[in-house]
Write a structure and sequence with these properties.
Layout lengths: L12 E2 L2 E2 L5 H13 L4 E6 L1 H9 L1 H8 L3 E4 L2 H10 L8 H15 L3 E5 L2 H14 L5 E5 L10 H13 L3 E5 L4 H12 L4 E4 L3 H6 L7 H5 L3 H8 L1 H34 L1
Parallel strand pairs: 3-4, 3-8, 5-6, 5-7, 7-8
Antiparallel strand pairs: 1-2
Length: 264
C-alpha cells in the first residue's frame, strides 16, 4: 500500500507575494540548482520596508512577482508564517552570500558582484576568494550613486555581467533598485541568477557592521540598527510599524483557512 505524500504547509502570501523559501539551506540548494541548470531567475528577501513599497509602487510589485525565490527577511513576517503553520526561518540577503559562494565554488559557478562602491567590491571580492579557494569571481561593477535600473549605466552593467560569463550575480543596490534591476535582467541575460542582498557586501568588506548574532536570533536587529542610525532609520521603521496592523488583518484569513484544512 502506497504511503500518502507528505503534507505540504501553505505558503504565506503578502500582497500577492508568496514566500516559498523556508530556510537558509533550502535557499542555497534552490539557488545553486537553478544556476546549474542555466536558468534566469531572481531572489528577493521580503521585509516590512518592502511591504510598504509593495503598496506604493506598481513596478516594485511587478518585480517581486517575477522573483522565483522569496525568503522572509522580517521577523514579523516569520511570526505570521508560524501562525499559519509554516515554520519559516528568517533569511536575509546578507545571510545568502557566503553559503551560496561556498556552493558556487564547489559547483564551478562564476559569480559577479554589483553595487556598493569600488573599494567595497574590491575588498569583498578578495575576501570571498580567500575564504572559498577556487571561487571564480568573474567581475564586479560599482555604479554611480544615482544608478537607475533603466538607464545607459544599467545597459553597461548588463553588458558587463553578460561578458563576464557569471552564473550568479549579487546585487547590493538596496531596495527598490536591486529588485527592479533584477527583473530587467530576467529579460536581457541568459543563464544568470540575480540575488538581491542589500548591504551584504558591505558586511563582508567591513564598511558596515552587522548587528550581533544574538540580536538577529531574537528579532532585534532592527533595534540595534536604530540605535546606530536613528536619523536615517527612525522614519523608515515608523512606516514599517504602521503597516503591521494591515498585514496582520490580511493574514488572519490565511491562518484561519490553514487551520480549518488541518483540522478537517
Amino acid at each position: 500500500m502506497l504511503e500518502p505524500p507528505p503534507q505540504q504547509h501553505p505558503n504565506l502570501t503578502v500582497d500577492g507575494i508568496a514566500i516559498n523559501i523556508v530556510s537558509l539551506p533550502q535557499a542555497v540548494d534552490s539557488i545553486v540548482s537553478a544556476a546549474q541548470t542555466g536558468d534566469n531567475f531572481s531572489v528577493c528577501t521580503l521585509n516590512l520596508d518592502h511591504v510598504v513599497q509593495l503598496q506604493q509602487r506598481a513596478d516594485f510589485r511587478a518585480a517581486y512577482r517575477r522573483a522565483r525565490f522569496v525568503t522572509a527577511d522580517g521577523f514579523p513576517i516569520v511570526v505570521l508564517s508560524r501562525l499559519l503553520g509554516t515554520k519559516i526561518e528568517r533569511t536575509t540577503g546578507a545571510d545568502l552570500v557566503e553559503p551560496v559562494c561556498q556552493e558556487a565554488r564547489r559547483k564551478g559557478l562564476p559569480i559577479f558582484l554589483l553595487g556598493a562602491t569600488e573599494p567595497t567590491l574590491a575588498i569583498s571580492a578578495r575576501r570571498l576568494s580567500e575564504r572559498f579557494r577556487g571561487l571564480n569571481v568573474a567581475g564586479y561593477f560599482a555604479p554611480g550613486r544615482n544608478f537607475e535600473p533603466y538607464s545607459a549605466e544599467a545597459d553597461h552593467a548588463i553588458e558587463t555581467i553578460r561578458a563576464s560569463g557569471a552564473r550568479l550575480c549579487f546585487l547590493a543596490l538596496g531596495a527598490p533598485r536591486q529588485e527592479l534591476f533584477a527583473a530587467r535582467c530576467l529579460d536581457e541575460l541568459n543563464g544568470t541568477g540575480m540575488l538581491c542582498i542589500g548591504a551584504g557586501l558591505d558586511f563582508i568588506a567591513g564598511t558596515q557592521v552587522r548587528a550581533p548574532s544574538i540580536t538577529q536570533k531574537y528579532g532585534l536587529e532592527w533595534a540595534w540598527r536604530l540605535l546606530h542610525e536613528p536619523g536615517r532609520l527612525a522614519p523608515r521603521y515608523a512606516r514599517c510599524m504602521a503597516v503591521v496592523p494591515r498585514l496582520v488583518a490580511h493574514t488572519i484569513p490565511q491562518i484561519v483557512n490553514a487551520r480549518m484544512r488541518k483540522a478537517a
